[in-house]
Amino acid sequence: MTDQADGPLAQRRRLGEWLPRNEAHLARYRLELAARARERGATAPRTSAVDELARLINGDPVLRMDMTRAIAQAREEGYVLGYSSIDELMSIIDYLMTYAPPFSETSLIHCPLNAVLDWPMCMPSGSALFRDPALNAQLKRVLNCWCGFLSGPHSREHLNTSPPEGWFCAEADQRIGLSQFICDPDEPYWGFASWNDFFTRQFRAGERPVDEPDNHKVVVSACEAAPYNIQLGVKLNDTFWIKSQPYSLQDIFTSAQPELARAFAGGSIYQAFLSAFNYHRWHAPVSGVISSAYAVDGSYYSDADSEGEDPGGLNDSQGYITAVAARAVIVIECDDRAIGKVGCVFVGMADVSSCVIEALPGQRVNKGDELGFFQYGGSTCCLVFEPDVIRGFVPQPPFDDNQEPVKVNARIATAR
């Protein structure tokens, strides 16, 4: 490999702090990963899911061509990848299957595979490549493999108080506020059984009270998330992939749910994004009965063409990914018939695409009850309302990327 830690350094917005803004830091990180991967690869066989990914790409001439060209295009632009071939990339991905993210006060890299694929995925050859269904199906298996590691006891390497990488050190505590969560500093690993157990940590009783629990007109935030967008008069079908990333209901709910999508045509959407440091469980924004709950397989590293050759494109494609990314859809038939249905769409992105649904069809939920959670992260969530239901939203644009998140169970809208 001939990668050097120089070349163009793009400074982009990085919503939610899943990756640092500094491209030079990411370049050094990729080179470090590559060195560790070479060392591990010399002594350990590949994980079966990664071996299957390599066989898929190398066995399909179009996938092999597009991946090879995407890598070459990124390197020709001068970007530091840490790899120059498909085989070297596979070795890095394999190393990440036993990787638990350390804390960093300034340069947290919570999505390591996203950091590795950052540039190839937004090159011309990468656009079609990372939308390929077969590739995404195998990437899902790879991410599930990593999720399995993060759900086991060997993932607790950084669950300690040692700075600068321990998640319980003073610097981390300032960002997380550990006292809000159920944990015990006197227990090994503070009582967490795994990285995922820590990441899906739960608030102590009373930390996030439900705003006006008996007032059905008050709609609360389903996630601890910062407002991203509000759109009125949402269309059943729209060209979400071209410019301004409008919402396309039939694509969000999928073609298998045409009646459900039509129920929301002309309605409104509230979208918010999650931070790497925040709470990652979902809660019911209204009281009612779950009428639909299903997972949608989708893409993991596809960004909107309108973002161009930009490593932050995936992060900036929040509207686009509601229609193409892996996601969980939960629909609540509200107790207040004037509100009707409320669609809750929890969208995974890149490495953080494991959506676990807990509330099932037929189950009654009260406002504030838990619906499910993101494992090893989260991305963005949408609340979808029928036409003429919402009198007004509390958060109002323009939204600041750096603003504090709206607390889960806090009021975000009032119904008519």
From TrEMBL:
<dbReference type="GO" id="GO:0006646">
    <property type="term" value="P:phosphatidylethanolamine biosynthetic process"/>
</dbReference>
<dbReference type="Pfam" id="PF12588">
    <property type="entry name" value="PSDC"/>
</dbReference>
<keyword id="KW-0456">Lyase</keyword>
<keyword id="KW-0670">Pyruvate</keyword>
<dbReference type="InterPro" id="IPR003817">
    <property type="entry name" value="PS_Dcarbxylase"/>
</dbReference>
<dbReference type="GO" id="GO:0004609">
    <property type="term" value="F:phosphatidylserine decarboxylase activity"/>
</dbReference>
<protein>
    <submittedName>
        <fullName>Phosphatidylserine decarboxylase</fullName>
    </submittedName>
</protein>
<dbReference type="InterPro" id="IPR022237">
    <property type="entry name" value="PsiD-like"/>
</dbReference>
<feature type="domain" description="L-tryptophan decarboxylase PsiD-like">
    <location>
        <begin position="49"/>
        <end position="175"/>
    </location>
</feature>
<keyword id="KW-0865">Zymogen</keyword>
<keyword id="KW-0210">Decarboxylase</keyword>
<dbReference type="Pfam" id="PF02666">
    <property type="entry name" value="PS_Dcarbxylase"/>
</dbReference>
